[in-house]
Amino acid sequence: MEKxxxxxxxxxxxxxxxxxxxxxxxxxxxxxxxxxxxxIELTAQAPERGNWNIQExxxxxxEPVRIKIRNIDTVSHGFAIPELGISxxxxxxxxxxxxxxxxxxxxxxxxxxxTCTTWCSTQHMQMTGRIIISEK
Amino acid sequence: MxxxxxxxxxxxxxxLVGLPLILAQPEEPKExxxxxxxxxxxYTPDTVEVNRGDRVTIRLISTDVHHGLYIDGYEVSTDAxxxxxxSLTFVANNTGKFVMRCSVTCGPxxxxxIGYLKVKPDYRLFGSIWxxxxxxxxxxxLVSRRQKQ
Amino acid sequence: xxxxxLGLIPVDWRFELTSLPYVRKIIxxxxxxxxxIVLNLSVFTxxxxxxxxxxxxxxxxxxxxxxxxxxxxxxLMMVMVPFFSRVWCMIxxxxxxxxxLQRLGFMKVRNKLFGLNKKWPKxxxxxxxxxxxxxxxxxxxxxxxxxxxxTFILLMSIIIGSIVLxxxxxxxxxxxxxxxxxxxxxxxYSNIAVTEIRAKDPQICKDHKHKDCVIGNEKGHACPWMxxxxxxxxxxxxxMCLECFKTCPYDxxxxxxxxxxxxxxxxxxxxxxxxxxxxxxxGIAIFFFLIMQxxxxxxxxxxxxxxxxxxxxxxxxxxxxxxxxxPGVFFVFVYASRTLGNKEIPLKKLFTNFSYxxxxxxxxxxxxxxxxxxxxxxxxxxxxxSDPFAWGWDLFGTSHFPWTPFLTGVMPYFxxxxxxxxxxxxxxxxFKISKQTFQKRDQAVRGFIPIAAFLTVVTIFLIWLFTG
Lengths: 136, 149, 468
Ligand code: SF4
Ligand code: SF4
Ligand SMILES: [Cu+2]
Ligand SMILES: [Cu+2]
What we know:
The complex is a heterotrimer. Chain A is α/β, with parallel strands linked by helices. Chain A has 2 domains: about 1-35; about 40-135, Sandwich (Immunoglobulin-like). Helix content of chain A is about 25%, strand content about 30%. Chain A has one helix at about 5-35; strands at about 40-45, 55-60, 65-70, 80, 85, 100-105, 110-115, 130-135. In chain A, strand 4 and strand 5 (about 85) form a beta hairpin. The longest helix of chain A is centred in the N-terminal third of the chain and has 32 residues, at about 5-35. By secondary structure, chain B is an alpha+beta fold. Chain B has a domain at about 30-120: Immunoglobulin-like, CATH 2.60.40. In chain B, about 30% of the residues lie in helices and about 35% in strands. Chain B is built from 2 helices and 9 strands. Chain B has helices at about 1-25, 125-145, and strands at about 30-40, 40-45, 45-50, 55-60, 65-70, 75-80, 85-90, 95-100, 115-120. In chain B, a hairpin with a 4-residue loop joins strand 5 (about 65-70) and strand 6 (about 75-80). In chain B, helix 1 packs antiparallel against helix 2 (about 125-145). Chain B is elongated. Chain C folds into 2 domains: about 5-265, no CATH class; about 285-465, no CATH class. Helices cover about 60% and strands about 5% of the residues of chain C. Chain C has 21 helices and 5 strands. Chain C has helices at about 25-30, 30-55, 65-85, 85-90, 95-105, 130-140, 140-145, 150-170, 175-180, 185-190, 200-205, 210-215, 245, 270-295, 295-305, 310-340, 345-355, 360-375, 380-385, 410-440, 440-465, and strands at about 5, 10, 15, 195-200, 255. In chain C, strands 3-5-4 form a 3-stranded antiparallel beta sheet. Chain C has a two-stranded antiparallel sheet with strand order 1-2. The longest helix of chain C has about 35 residues, at about 310-340. The interface of A and B includes residues 75, 95, 119, 120 and 122 of A. One iron/sulfur cluster binds near residues 225 and 242 of chain C.
């Protein structure tokens, strides 16, 4: 092959890497980061903008789980399951564009409330959902 | 012609130099408490004016979501939720305009939620206007003087 | 006696950067600027992806918003334009797809470009279209800088628009005359830059009858920006693509270091389109300040389109202020200048020529404005580089770095300092333009006074607005 064609092919590969490659790498890295444990992805938005994307979470007693709370809103939110004594570390707040992660193993069965812990809107009190933990 | 210009220049400069003395009537430092209402995306009042040396307490009241208040230069901050006021106190020793900005992300326009703290007398503003006018006068003198050479 | 910029550096002082070892070699390689474009493209892929997945969430924690409106914008205004002219256009990935399509390849030289290769209509060979395009873009600034998806849409439309338009119109007409909102001011403000691309020895160009830089050869393309590399004159329309370095058989092109703002003294191709660009840019700096760093809540509600009437009021005020009010006030001072100087000089000529004094003033206003973003808000960047898509990553361990304003106490002094420097520079340029326009020295002095007064008033206004 001519030298010119080889450079052309190298250039094409670089362009592919810069576009599709970057996207692919991002997806792979994300997969690698959160793989393994069962992960439930919650997105948090104030009630008037859509509330929690999942209103009911079903878990099994004794099976470890990770709850990943992505705040895709424009104000801070929080997350807690008061009856199980589960809440976020630190300030208990997830800023917009940030992600909070909680990993735990449910030990009780029953029907519990999960809720936002930050005064995020006038309808903040409605920003709740249910966690239902059942036997295997 | 040139002499007149010089004289005018000197008069203006003298006036300008004199002005800060007029501006700077010292006032007794006071205790001041100011209530600021925060709502998306502004503060009411949007400008707080105090005098140098005042001991200022700001009470921050939020009427919608969680807001904050950070004061540039003084680097103090507080935050407030509806029903849960914030407060901060400082002694206004630095003069000039300082931006008060929201420090808690409160919505799309959060970075633009801004108020002003003005601590008088504002020597900085005065000094820089004086400099600008000085540059103007100098430039005129300079270009007319070169003419002679 | 040659003139000196700020009384210090002679206007014709040059230092040839391409005379340094290896620099010319790098610049003559076809990997340049291909590699920086591709590198930049990968950053833009992240920006676009972040803008897309970010949706309508908070802009201050979004990679796309932060990189475009803080990192890129500040770099552009504070570093690239004043120091390196249109270097952004050298590495800009947005029109790259269109250009690769025209060349049907990435690195190879193809002198017959693919596409319809239409010529650009002569009547539109000016800045008017981009003036309105940029003004139009700023109507949406409240969204562009706060909603990730808006930035995504803007960038995507530039990319798609460039592919379509570059398939129709030849070469870089897209960048030059229509497609890029920022292209216009990059051109005008680059006149201030302390670097330039110029031919070294005009005699060599004169003797070289077969102008390879204009028609292209097997080493490189004909100037994609359709200017004459041997007679560039001003930085305005040189996109720094480096093709002429490759095509010139005599190595007669050079990148020079030079004193600032010398292009503003070039009395060639000046026009009202560029005058209005200068007005609009100054006006937008003022409006952006009011929206982003001002204390008027109602204006923010207007720009945020909380109510339709509010938004329309904002659009109307913004347009009138930029298109009519600033030129109107400026006109009064120009009129005074003519009355004092010489009533025989055509008003239009005076108006156009003196409007170039607003170029340094405008760029400096933007730099001062940018300090007000740099110190309080650049700490957000640390968060977004660690977690660009808000997926809970922590690439560099800084994803929990809190918002930390710094140096906010001395920020006003930076702003005042730059504004005063801008005043000195524009006064200097102002008097040189005055001499050029009035010809006679005493007329030039008298005619200069109102313009100097205008520039001083603008500076004082900006100092008061930003820091008082
Ligand atoms: S004119 Fe605009 S689109 Fe074209 S290269 Fe320059 S910045 Fe990029
Ligand atoms: S003169 Fe033309 S070919 Fe040379 S760098 Fe500028 S735009 Fe490119
Ligand atoms: Cu909430
Ligand atoms: Cu706020």
